[in-house]
Write a structure and sequence with these properties.
With 546 residues, the protein is of the alpha+beta class. The strands form four sheets. It has a five-stranded mixed β-sheet with strand order 2-1-10-5-6.
Length: 546
């Protein structure tokens, strides 16, 4: 036991040296990223590279398991790996200082390569990882030199005559001169150096965050100044009966703060509306165009209630929301550029939208120009788009899953063909075309609820964008399907609330729901996962009636 304790105690200085070196590398890298751009920080670029190279099934699992916290989980995982590597290098460095420093530099090289792999990378994006790793290597060497046992050499440590002496480490050897192991190490000096270094690293990191926030101030100010024009075509008034007001049911309009967010951006882009530009170009255009936000706002705007759905939404999942959107009809912009859909002889059948962070989404040109309310949205529920949802401009196409239509932070539209180009998600085995499937969800009672016997209100929402929902049915256990009461329909592009009053008897029961769309097609009972073109199946919950 004493030997084990001695090993642990002996390893402590090396571990601390490694952790402080790793912390210093990240802190300085954060400072440099604040000067370059926040998205170039090592954790962000490595995280982005991990996301890009993660198999679709693993991404789907992460979204299913962690929801909108998947990015936080990834960043925590990256930091945990950094801690493990820093600990290992710290244990190695007191006796093999150069090897430990090389390990830190290698980790910086990984960060630099990850930075240059990002679609929106610039030459300066390597600087945070490179300068951070150089700092970490220097700190590791400094602390490791103070963490080794120091043999007595006859030179007083502090002139105090205590009889304790220490040696000066041999240059570049990673070992103290004399090779003896019976001496003492300068604990106070080591801990002081570690504390000062850690404090400086924390200060550097905090300053980096401050500088990064300042870089985004222009974007925030541009959003605060933005006054949205009145729509030339306002949204029709929502029918009075579209909102049931049932306790526990999802609101008809999803507040911005509660609207789902699923994307790959570890750092949310903050784009200055004053400098934003949109370029439309590609195959079959009579003329390419570039638009400013002022150009778009000067055009006739439409306002529509539209339900968006993420393809990662499992049966009964939360990644669906309904909002009132304000924007420019996308078909009108394309028409100005001379674009024709394939049905009218156009050569391009795919519209590739690119965001400022390099994300690419592909939409069928035919769908964008078939008369539906596809738009470049500038407003959401009466205010400019939140940054999380694409400020200053995002694209949306009713009836299509978000990964083929809802490009946030859009800056480029290219007309091409499906044969010529595969966007981001298609390269990762998702379908090229993805119309939203008919789905329904039970919002109340919640799974494993324990309602009292008697009348139990079962309620939820159903959606089938572009087709509308005409019927919702509920089944208890293996009994017959029973019609639920439908709220009034707003439009075929919005979800529809429903309610069923169940005369519940004591015991355990399974409640299931299904919807019928405007074509008469009943929601599929075949259970399928989200990959490659959206989940299917029927939502059910188990409750115990008391």
């Amino acid at each position: 036991m004493s030997n084990f304790r001695n090993i642990v105690v002996g390893a402590g200085p090396g571990v601390l040296a490694g952790l402080v070196a790793g912390f210093s590398a990240l802190g300085v890298a954060e400072l440099v990223a604040g000067l370059v751009r926040p998205a170039a920080a090592p954790v962000a670029v490595v995280g982005g590279a991990v996301i890009d190279r993660t198999p679709s099934a693993v991404k789907d699992f992460a979204i299913r398991s962690f929801g909108e916290n998947d990015k936080s989980v990834l960043q925590i995982g990256i930091l945990a790996v950094v801690v493990l590597i820093a600990t290992g290098l710290g244990l190695l460095a007191p006796r093999h200082r150069r090897t430990g420093a090389a390990g830190v530099l290698l980790f910086g090289l990984v960060g630099a390569i990850a930075a240059m792999s990002r679609p929106d990378a610039g030459p300066a994006d390597v600087l945070p990882s490179v300068i951070g790793s150089l700092t970490g290597a220097a700190v590791l060497c400094l602390l490791a030199s103070r963490a080794v046992s120091q043999p007595e050499t006859g030179r007083p440590e502090d002139g105090g005559g205590t009889g304790r002496f220490r040696a000066v480490p041999g240059p570049g050897t990673g070992r103290p001169e004399g090779g003896g192991g019976a001496g003492r190490w300068n604990r106070r000096g080591f801990l002081t150096a570690a504390a000062v270094t850690a404090g400086a690293a924390a200060g550097a990191g905090a300053l980096g965050r401050f500088l990064g926030a300042r870089r985004g101030r222009d974007a925030v100010a541009s959003r605060n100044r933005l006054v949205l024009p009145a729509p030339a075509s306002p949204a029709p008034a929502v029918p009075a009966g579209a909102r049931l007001g049932t306790a526990g049911i999802t609101p008809f309009t999803t507040p911005n703060r509660a609207f789902y967010r699923v994307d790959t951006a570890l750092v949310v882009p903050e784009v200055d509306a004053g400098t934003w530009r949109l370029r439309i170009h590609g195959e079959g255009l009579a003329r390419a165009r570039t638009y400013t936000l002022a150009d778009l706002l000067a055009r006739p705007l439409i306002e529509r209630d539209i339900t968006l759905t993420c393809v990662s939404n499992e049966v009964g999942g939360p990644y669906v929301g309904n909002a009132r959107w304000l924007g420019v009809p996308l078909a009108d912009l394309l028409d100005d550029c001379g674009v024709r859909p394939p049905s009218k002889g156009g050569g391009a059948d795919q519209l590739v939208a690119r965001s400022v962070d390099g994300m690419t989404l592909g939409s069928p040109v035919e769908d964008v120009m078939d008369g539906r309310d596809a738009m470049l949205a500038v407003g959401m529920n009466g205010e400019p788009l939140p940054f999380d949802h694409g400020f200053p401009v995002r694209m949306l196409v009713p009836g299509l899953y978000g990964y083929v239509s809802a490009c946030k932070w859009i800056e480029d539209i290219e007309l091409t063909t499906f044969d010529a180009y595969d966007p981001y998600w298609v390269k990762r085995n998702w379908a090229r075309r993805a119309p939203v499937k008919t789905q329904s969800r039970i919002d109340t009672p919640r799974p494993f609820a324990r309602p009292a016997a008697g009348t139990v209100v079962v309620a939820g929402v159903a959606w089938a964008q572009r087709r509308g929902v005409t019927r919702v049915e509920v089944r208890v256990d293996d009994g017959p399907w029973q019609d639920a009461d439908l709220a009034a329909q707003d439009t075929v592009d919005t979800w529809r609330q429903w309610v069923y009053r169940w005369q519940a008897t004591r015991g355990g029961h399974t409640l299931a729901v299904r919807a019928t769309d405007g074509t008469g097609a009943v929601q599929s009972e075949r259970r399928a996962r989200t990959i490659p073109d959206g989940a299917s199946g029927r939502h059910s919950v188990f409750v115990t009636v008391t």
